[in-house]
Amino acid sequence: MILIFKKLFLFPNGLRDQLVMKKIIFILALSLGLMACENDVKFNNPAFEAEKNYTAPWKANEFSASVNQGVIVITATDGVETLVLRTAAYDFGGKYEMGIIESNRAKLVQVFEDGKQNIFETGVNVGSGYIEYAPIEDQVPGTITGKFVLSLKGEKDASVTFQKGVFYRVPMEEAK
């Protein structure tokens, strides 16, 4: 029994020291690796964002919604561009097509440092897309949630598109 113990725990020529050092390094690396695992989860609640022109993320830093006589207007801005979504009704779970009737519209206004503006919008036979409001079970009282896809037209055949658009728990207020 003593012979087995010596063979297991006593190593010639410093081999035991090397194994101990490897164990210490392994335990140190493992503990540092576990400490580096943090939860960096950030929630966008509320939020208004989309993918603009198929590549660039567009995220509003200010947004609001208002209702007046059944018409809902959702406004979002990133400080340079302001996007306005408007539908003549807002049935939860309803989908409203853009570019067909005048009362369902979207408009993007870009304001430049020199004061000039570019305006892109939908209207009758102008632009396309949709706004879809989330079903009632996904809504929170006093807010509006939904998604959108838009193709807005400007002057000289210029266009701006928004894909994967989401507005989540945007605060709503009744117009006076």
Can you describe this structure?
The protein has 176 residues and is α+β, with helices and mostly antiparallel strands. The protein is built from 2 helices and 11 strands. It has helices at 2-9, 15-35, and strands at residues 47-52, 56-59, 62-68, 71-77, 81-87, 95-98, 105-111, 117-121, 128-133, 143-153, 159-174. Strands 1, 2, 3, 4, 5, 6, 7, 8, 9, 10 and 11 form an 11-stranded mixed sheet that branches. The longest helix is centred in the N-terminal third of the chain and has 21 residues, at 15-35. The chain is extended. The model has no long low-confidence stretch (mean pLDDT 83).
Q: Any key phrases for this structure?
A:
single chain; 176 residues; alpha+beta; eleven-stranded mixed sheet; 2 helices; 45% strand; extended
Return the structural class.
Answer: alpha+beta
Helix percent reads 10-25%
Q: Give the biggest beta sheet.
A: 11 strands, mixed
Intertermini distance: 92 Å
Let me know the number of strands.
11
Instruction: Tell me the radius of gyration.
Output: 29 Å
Instruction: Give average pLDDT, whole number.
Output: 83
The run of helices and strands is HHEEEEEEEEEEE
Principal-axes shape call: extended
Low-confidence stretches: none
User: How large is the share of residues in beta strands?
Assistant: over 45%
